[in-house]
Each structure stands twice: as C-alpha cells, then as structure tokens.
Write a structure and sequence with these properties.
It is built from 20 helices and 35 strands. The protein is α+β, with helices and mostly antiparallel strands.
Length: about 775
C-alpha cells in the first residue's frame, strides 16, 4: 500500500484525478455488496399469482409513515397522484399530492401520470412523470417525509395540488396544515411546508384556484399552490400525526431539518442497515441473499409505532394517552403473523416485541369488552378470520423469556376471547348456542349441504368454518393452559390442557382427516376433502381445504402421529399431501379456492396454515424429507422477481417463514420454546440476540445441492436431535451442521429425538 501511494503521489495531475475518480466509484460498489439493504428488492411479488400483490413500500422499520405508488400492481402504466401516508398495507391512502406544470386549466384534484424510470428502495423513491416532464424524489422518516420535484419543462408555471377527503385544510405562506377524517374517530393531521413561498396559493374547487380563500372545510377539501415559471425545483417536507396539527409539526421538526432528499435518504439507509443487519449471512447465491433480505424487510413493515413524543391516540376510547416509555404499536393481523413473524421478533427484537404485547394489552383495557385484539388496525380491531391467536403471541413470548408485561392481564384478556365472545369467524358478538354446544361437546357443529343457517352470530359470507374453528380453538386453549401454568393456576392449566385435545373429536379414523360433524355427532357425508364446504371451503375449513387443515394441530403433533397410526403412516399422509393432484382444472380449483395458492399437490405454500407442514416430517423420524421439501418450496415459490410471492403477504406472514427457513430452523409451535431444524441456505448465519449475545449457525459444505444434514453440534456438543430449545441459544449459541448432497436417513430419526408436543414438556423444560 505504501508503494502504491508513493507512485500515486508522483503521477501527473490528470492521472491523479482519474485514479481518484476510479477509487470514488469503486468504493460505494464495494460497500454496497456488504450492506443488507442493497439486497432488498421491493418489487418482489408485485404481480400476484391470483389475489393481492405485494407493494413496493417505502418506509422505515415499523414506521408510522408508509407510502407506495398508488396503482393496481406493477403492470399498471399510470399512477394516481403521489401518496402522503397510507394507514394500511393494502391502501387506505390519506391525502394525495399532484405536481403539475402548465396552465391552470390543466389542474385537477388528483392527476394520473404516465411514468417511467421508477426506482424503489426501502428508504428512497424516484420516478419520472413523463407527460409532465417532471422528476420526483422522495424519502421517509418515521412520522415525516420529504419530496423534491424537478420541473423540467421551462417557461411554464409549476403547481402542487394537495387533495384530501372530509376535513380541513388551511394555507399560510409556504405552509399547508389540516386533517382528514378517516373512520371510527380517527383523524390524520398534516403539517406541510415548501422551501419557497408560492406566488399564489389557496383553495382549489370547481377546477379553479381561489387565492382569496385560505381555508377549505367539509367534503372534498383541496388546495393548490403555484410558483413563478423561473422556479425549476420545489421541495416539500411534511409531518403527520394522529394527535394534532401541532404534533405533526413537532414530528417534522424532530425528524427532518433539511430540504435535501439525499440527507433524509442517507439517514434512512443507515436505519435500514442497522435493522436488517441483525441477521448477517454468508454464502448462498446472490438470489438467495436478495430473497432473504427482501423477506426480512417485509417482516419490518408492521406493526407500526404510533407513539408521538411519548403520547399516542387510541381509537378504542378516542383519547390521547401517555405511553409510559413503552412505544404503542398497532396494525397487525395476528391470524397471519402469530405463526412466524412474532417468533422472529422475539429472537431479533425482543424489546419491540414486548412493547407490541403491552400495546395489545392497552387495547384490551380500553376497547369496552376487554378482548385481546385479533386484527388491530389503525382504525381499531376488525376481528377478522377465525379463532383467537393472540394467546399464542403471549405464550410464546413468555415461554422464551420476555417478562416486561402483565401476564395475568394478558391471560384474562385472551381467556375472555374464548369464553365471553362467540367463536364464529369474523365476529365480536357475545356467545350463542354454537358456543354453548362447543363447550359441552368439544367441537363446533357443521351444517349439512343445503341446510339453512339460523344462528345470528354466523357471518353470511364467512360461514361457520366448523373444523377450522375447532382445531384453532383447541390450540388457543392449549395456549391458555400454558399461560395458566406460568401463573401457577394449576386447575385452570389442567382444564385448558384437557380442552386442547378437542381436535380429536373431528378426527375420522377411516380417512385420517379432520372431518366436520353435525350437531348429532355424525360425520357430514358424502364428503370431498378437496372441495366440500363451498366458496373457500368456508362451511367447514377456512380459505384452505381439508388437506391443509389435516395438519392444523401444531401443539400436539405427537398426538396426531398416534391418531394416524404411527410414524410410517404419518409420513405417507404427508407425502400424499404434496402429491395429490388438484382434482379439477386450475380454473375450477381456484374459482372455488382462490386463497389456496402456491400449490404443490394439495399443499398451499401461499397461505399461512400450511407454513409448518413441511417441518412435520421431523416428528415422524424423517428429517431428511423436511430438509428436501423446505429447500424446494422456497426455491419454487419465493423468488427475486415480480411473481416471487405465492400468496397474500400480510405483514410478514409468509416472509417470516422464508427468513426462518433460509436460516435453517422454524418455530412449529408458538408457545413452546423450541425450534425444528431444517436446511440452511447459507454457510454461515449470525443472529444478533441483543445484549451482546448472538446465535451462529454454520453449515459446512452447504450448497444448492448439499442440503442434507449429516451430523450436528450444538454449543460444542454432538447433537442428534433435529430440534433445539430456546434456552439452548438464548444466552448465545452455536449450531454447526455438516451438509452433503446425499440424504442421511438416520440423523435425527430416532423416536426419542422427536421435537416436543403437548404431553412431552418434561423432556425439555
């Protein structure tokens, strides 16, 4: 290096400049290859296989302010204005900003644009608006953001139009402030300012700007501003709030003190690298790293933190509260996220996971009925889907050592969900006759085909979902038994542990499927496990058919192995799931089961109840089959391309499966502090567990072909079990796996090495 520098200093000035430029260009490239955020591809999955695509969301991890281009999906050739904030990952855009240059007659409340040269990074967005000859750049902070507009058509007037719904806007110099009413008492407040005072600004109504009117109120509020034609660039920065306009202004001042997009983007990039860098990977392919870090980015969209300077607005009582030093989070669909997204956060972000649980408890305290939330959104708990899986989030966190929340309050709120609210899907109604039946008989009764529904708690579209409710509630009650045990409530622990076996009431021994029964205890016949149950199989299951719900007993896999006649029969039934043909043409299959996507046989990679299924081979002495199946599923369905997501990605629901699976293990049973070993995609993974502790996974010889575990060592000791306990790694640990391209049918195959299940706690606690 000394010799090189000496020669460098002796070169003539021209060569020095060339070398300096070369070094400047090369260094960012070298750094980019080491930065996790550079592997993120927000376009992954932007064209859906059937239902909702992913969106190229620009935000900071768990940030309140999120945006993405307002369009149908990636194939849309026009965007509908520019977003200010969205309150849901599936839209619900609040406000809309439209730049324009030209005569006032061309203005509209919201402009649609032809666009090109769009680039999306988690921390930065840029696009050319072709017909307007405009270049746009954007960068977010957590509760504020900044736009810059380059008006490239000289000699014409630059404009900005800000559109809202029902609410108030007020213009004062270079500032626009106000709010938009949303729903359920929620208001989104805005404070927006430009870097130059416009020459004209005021209310925009009936296609015209009225600079004499500075305030718009009511429905369809809209304001506009114009600058002189000499102005070629305008920057706009803004803050948002759920509390007040003044708080929106404070949020902006706290986070952004510049009008330079690059400065905000630079800080956002740093934040993202710190968040994604909690997991570092080596080896694998470039595509593997892109899929991995894109999936991890998807897990960090939701829930969102809505604490603002230590306060938050609650839609449950329409009041502003002090957060007591624990940030308040909302917007989480627990049916989708409890399986893997929450367990992932327990590992890599336990303090945030604790605050999330505390937030859910605050919701339960203020919602009137004191239910633990099920689908806590920005506008409140929407009680979607079936069952009440908040208990899984609580039990899993406590079992893995998170303690800074009120377990007794959580237990009571989760218990009320099961005991004092109907089990009927998509409902928060009080219990009815179906619930009394479940408590007495241990299963949710089903209607026969053509039988008319008479129970008022049942949603006319979502139906009874009788098998899904029975199986899911058995798991929920197992989670209650876990919490009761942690609290030392022995009688309640035994009560709910006994009820956790209710899934057995619907097991049909002649078919080895979970089969709906009517109120008289008779199996519904005739029956087709692929198609019976109507649209989405909702009469009996939920979005997925009987083949998927055949495996929905995550808390007692050992019991399911026994019911199916032992390990060999269990493995045969698993194999059959991945091999059974659709039974109809794809057109007919998906016309009835549109959520049942990403199919391998009857297995649905695109829907969350399937996520644990490929790991179940481990419980029956065939870990090598899990290793092969997980590798093939991820490679087939999660790819670094526009169709690289097999189903609806709901806040990390599917992506967390990818993150865990590519690291080489998976939490089959949230609530049990144990992980099942799969097949890592990388030769080395290092997970930052916090407090200076880390989990290192080394997979010697790992490659695309070498996917099979030959031997293992855990914390320096030979390890024959295809699973490990959270306690083994909570203080830091090291899992070493020797990999090869030949399956090793003996490793981890002994019956005594199977992972724990409902009645096997003494083996690991």
């Amino acid at each position: 290096m000394q010799c090189f520098l000496g020669k460098f200093m002796r070169t003539d000035r021209f060569v020095k400049k060339l070398l300096w430029l070369w070094l400047c260009c090369l260094t960012p490239c070298l750094r980019a290859a080491e930065s996790p955020v550079d592997y993120v591809n927000p376009y992954m999955g932007n064209i859906s296989h059937l239902l909702v695509p992913t969106y190229p969301i620009v935000h900071l991890p768990h940030g309140m302010l999120r945006v993405y281009p307002q369009r149908g999906d990636y194939t849309s050739d026009r965007i509908h204005g520019l977003p200010v904030i969205q309150i849901s990952h599936r839209g619900s855009f609040i406000f809309n900003l439209s730049p324009f240059q030209g005569d006032e007659s061309g203005l509209d409340r919201v402009l649609d644009y032809d666009y090109d040269n769009e680039t999306v990074k988690p921390y930065h967005y840029a696009v050319d608006l072709c017909d307007q000859q405009l270049h746009v750049e954007f960068a977010p902070s957590r509760q504020s953001a900044i736009y810059h507009f380059d008006f490239r058509r000289g000699g014409e007037t630059p404009w900005l139009v800000l559109n809202g719904g029902h609410g108030t806007f007020e213009v004062s110099g270079n500032v626009v402030s106000g709010y938009q009413d949303v729903w359920n008492g929620l208001r989104v407040y805005l404070y927006m300012e430009t870097d130059a005072v416009p020459v004209r600004a005021g209310v925009f109504a009936s296609g015209r700007l009225d600079p004499g009117r500075k305030k718009a109120e009511g429905d369809g509020i809209c304001v506009a501003a114009a600058w002189s034609p000499e102005v070629r660039g305008v920057s706009v920065r803004y803050g948002v709030s759920y509390i007040s306009v003044e708080q929106a202004r404070r949020n902006l001042r706290r986070e952004i003190n510049t009008f330079e997009v690059a400065d905000v983007a630079r800080e956002g990039r740093k934040v993202w690298n710190e968040a994604l860098g909690k997991i570092r990977v080596e080896g694998g392919t470039e595509a593997d790293r892109r899929v991995f870090y894109t999936s991890l980015y998807r897990c960090m969209e939701r829930p969102v933190c809505v604490s603002e300077d230590g306060r938050y607005f609650s839609v449950y009582d329409h009041r502003v509260h002090d957060d007591g030093g624990h940030a308040y989070y909302t917007d989480d669909w627990l049916w989708d996220s409890y399986r893997a997204a929450h367990p992932l956060r327990v590992l890599i972000d336990p303090e945030r996971e604790t605050d999330i649980i505390r937030s859910f408890l605050r919701m339960a305290e203020t919602d009137g009925a004191h239910y633990f939330p099920n689908f806590p959104e920005i506008t409140g708990d929407s009680r979607r889907m079936n069952c009440n899986h908040g208990g899984a989030v609580v039990a899993d966190a406590w079992a893995k050592g998170l303690r800074d929340f009120d377990l007794e309050a959580a237990y009571e709120a989760c218990r009320r969900n099961v005991e004092e609210k109907t089990l009927a899907p998509w409902s928060a109604a009080r219990p009815g006759r179906l619930d009394s039946f479940y408590r007495e008989k241990g299963y949710f009764p089903a209607l026969r085909e053509g039988e008319r529904e008479t129970e008022p708690q049942v949603n006319s579209w979502e139906k009874r979902q009788a098998v899904a409710v029975t199986l899911g509630t058995a798991y929920d009650e197992w989670c209650l038994s876990r919490m009761a045990g942690f609290l030392g409530r022995g009688d309640e622990e035994r009560h709910y542990l006994d009820r956790a076996r209710n899934y057995r009431h619907l097991f049909n021994p002649s078919t080895s499927f979970f089969h709906p029964k009517d109120a008289g205890g008779r199996f519904i016949e005739p029956f087709d496990y692929r198609f019976s149950g109507g649209m989405g199989a909702r009469e009996y299951y939920g979005e997925n058919n009987g083949w998927v719900y055949r495996w929905d007993v995550p808390h007692d896999v050992a019991g399911l192995v026994e019911l199916m006649g032992g390990r060999e029969a269990f493995v045969r039934n698993l194999d059959a799931t991945f091999r059974e043909w659709l039974g109809r043409s794809k057109y007919e299959f998906y016309a009835q089961l549109p959520d049942h996507t990403g199919n391998v046989g009857q297995y649905s990679m695109g829907n969350e109840p399937s996520l644990h299924v490929p790991y179940l081979y481990v419980y029956a002495g065939a870990p090598w089959k899990t290793q092969q199946r997980v590798r093939s599923l991820v490679r087939q369905w999660f790819r670094d391309d526009l169709m690289g997501m097999p189903g609806d990605e709901d806040g990390g629901g599917l992506s967390a499966f990818v993150v865990f699976s590519m690291m080489g293990f998976y939490p089959v049973t949230p609530g049990l502090p144990a992980y099942v070993v799969g097949s890592p995609f990388f030769s080395r993974v290092e997970i930052d567990l916090g407090d200076g502790k880390s989990l290192e996974i080394r997979a010697k010889g790992c490659s695309e072909q070498a996917k099979y575990v030959q031997s293992a060592r855990l914390n320096g000791k030979e390890w024959s079990k295809p699973w490990f306990a959270h306690a083994d790694i909570a203080g830091g640990g090291r899992l070493e796996l020797d990999m090869d391209d030949r399956c090793h049918k003996e490793w981890g195959s002994r019956a005594e090495d199977a992972p724990p299940s409902l009645l096997m706690e003494e083996r690991w606690e």
